[in-house]
Amino acid sequence: MLQRLSRLFSFTPKQVVFKDWNIVRGDKVEVISGKDKGKQGTVLMVKRKFNTVIVSGVNYKVKHMKYHDRLDNGKVRKEFPLHVSNVMLVDPETGKRTRTRDGFLETGEKVRIAKKSGAMIPKPVWNELTYKERHKNIKDGPKDTPPEIALKQTYEGINKEAIKAEFEKWVAEREKEAAWLIFPE
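User: That's the sequence. What structure does it adopt?
Assistant: Structure tokens below.
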């Protein structure tokens, strides 16, 4: 019993998050340690907060879920995260794992270069675009407010003089009512 409680309240140091990442979603990587050593796959997800990546076809575990028509007895094979130090980028020329260094093109763009072959490893093109590119050609709909109306100033602020006059009028009425009151001595 005491061992279980000590596990619940034990101190676990916070994971130090890496600042510089060479691996992004869509990269082809190879596992360099663990039960799936030597397997290659593409990065499905990068979890920078935990320094882990999810690679397709690697680190499968069986997850038990509620029974469905589509599921086989409620068991699902699912990829689980690997620590980023356990994977390396694959050289596009040789097809083997490689270390990388940063280089710059003539335009000043930063690129990844394989140390073994010197080949440039391009960053994968994502289907999702940046916010600006997604909203570049959007037309105003019937429920959108035009910019000239949205930017028009309609609030003038509080009229302090009117509020003060109204309060003074209210005080004068209360004083008048109080003057008519007669209190027994």
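The helical segments are 2-8, 131-134, 147-150, 160-180.
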